[in-house]
């Protein structure tokens, strides 16, 4: 069957489509049906099945005689080490860790926060939670103590599993002080912390609270896999919304297993036993779905890569990893390729490596600009496949189904909707738009298995953020259009979320922090275009009248404040002091207009602007820092 037949088969009978896909999963009790719609618009999948994620990702492959196959390759150019773990070893390591967690009182439904760099122990910690029905929440290592504290207070974990340090090029990231700081800031108190001590930095443990990763596993009984209900939360993953309070995306167990397993062959075109590499981080959804769960559930070998596309040690690192581990399918963000292209535009490093194992490059996380796609095609000589999805959906909404039927690539489009997703372009009033017309991208409910059923402890916010605007649809927050042949084009966000080097960040969250500076009366943060990272945040500060502080001091304090509160990942390095902000007569800050001015793009001054003269003031201020040329 080709793509159109498969999509039509799903549309004609979604229940049968997903029940068939569910057969590829080992259930302790097969679900009696796929969709539960009694509480629409809250939908659940495979709710009455009983299943364990860790069993499906690890043990079943060992039982099937594939215990000797490599499950995880840790390739770490920043420490100069490569370490392989077989499925059999992985089972034993995870069972031991899970047993130790259980012995310390972690039960089904308890939350465990994981704050770790790109080491296999991070994946093992996720799997150990899944093994005993605990709900993990992984926090990206580039977030600062405050962000970790916010997540501790929301998820209310019983335990935190952390590493002593991470390694960024040129510096050691001291996790322990960040962890201690977060625990101190948080109102919720955890029972204990498990610290994985790395060679590069051994952290001081706090007696009575911290336990050593190895020591606390000593003598414990390994844990078996505990079957849980299909609608039991597998994890919570926080993502940026319009405010500083992140949204806790919930993932249910059954749908997660079925959808990820289905996507590995049908979308990514890989067979069990092949090597799949997603160069992302376990702290992001790509890391959850395609470093940890997807490849392991499907019986692939996954790579945990601790390095950067450039500088670790050079722009040939990716090619070396592909060659050394015979990578079949490779997934990264366009920004990584822009970084390589900038250092090695002619692809000189490629000549040193044999990358003939590679079948396909997948790009996602941000817009894949045509220059980057064409350059990657030219260099790698394999299909370069853009695909579009979000933390909320957990797997691709729109892509090119390489395992069903590779469709012609249209550069600039992530291609077509995947089965499960009925995608529409809507106008402000929620009416469908014609082909080629730009509008809000919405997905007809129900969303398929593996997507978010709700937000953690925030059902009202879930409704408000995603369901209320277009009744009967899920609002993606992206805008775009569909062409005559059904190809989707993503053009912009409809909210204040920006995308910096494939990382999703909230300008609203940054504004809340800037506003807390004692000399800042008012502020705005926008995302300006950046050649490397796609977008970069830029702050506008109106200072309090009468302040005797210099603009330079206030700006540098604000930059430091955002780094300290959100973390280095915010990449907030530029801000300017202005006398006032452009606003409508009703007081709404004209952020979209400010972006256009900064990017030197064409724009019309909005008719509702309070004082048109301010446009020139903003342009002049931006010119002083190299924008609005
Ligand atoms: N722990 C601690 N700090 C981290 C971190 C982590 N896990 N990841 C990034 N940071 C820090 C970086 O060191 C940097 O700090 P600095 O301001 O002191 O230099 C800052 O956060 C910004 O990081 P980043 O945006 O990654 O920029 P970079 O300049 O270090 O690297 C690229 C640029 C393009 C090489 C890099 O962004 C990249 O590899 N991107 C791939 C995108 C990706 O994987 N996205 C995931 C979604 S698919
Ligand atoms: P995240 O939840 O961090 O994965 O970010 C999801 C957002 O990143 C989407 O809503 C889009 O705005 C953007 N995004 C992800 N993939 C793509 C893509 N292929 N093309 C354009 N934008 C993308």
List keywords for this structure.
Propionyl-CoA synthetase, GMP Synthetase, Chain A, domain 3, alpha/beta, single chain, propionate-CoA ligase activity, Rossmann fold, AMP-binding_CS, 17 helices, binds coenzyme A, 629 residues, binds adenosine monophosphate, 7-stranded mixed sheet
Task: Let me know the number of strands.
Answer: 31
Residues in helices, as a percent range:
25-40%
Structural class assignment: alpha/beta
CATH topology-level name of the domain at 87-226: Rossmann fold
| Tally of helical runs | 17
Question: Main sheet, how many strands, which sense, barrel?
Answer: 7 strands, mixed
CATH class of the domain at 87-226: Alpha Beta
- Form type: globular
Side by side, the strands of the main sheet go 5-4-17-16-18-19-20
Please explain how this structure is put together.
Residues 68-444 form the AMP-dependent synthetase/ligase domain. Belongs to the ATP-dependent AMP-binding enzyme family. Pfam families: ACAS_N, AMP-binding, AMP-binding_C. The protein is an alpha/beta fold. Among the domains are: 87-226, Rossmann fold (3-Layer(aba) Sandwich); 501-623, GMP Synthetase, Chain A, domain 3 (2-Layer Sandwich), CATH 3.30.300. It is 31% helix and 24% strand. The protein is built from 17 helices and 31 strands. The strands form 10 sheets. It has a 7-stranded mixed sheet, with helices on both faces. The longest helix has 17 residues, at 87-103. The protein is globular and about 75 Å long. The chain starts with a helix and ends in a 6-residue tail after the last helix. The site of adenosine monophosphate has 20 residues, from β25 and β26. Residues 117, 141-142, 166, 168, 173, 280-281, 284, 286, 308-310, 333, 335-336, 339, 365, 501-503, 568-569, 571 line the site of coenzyme A.
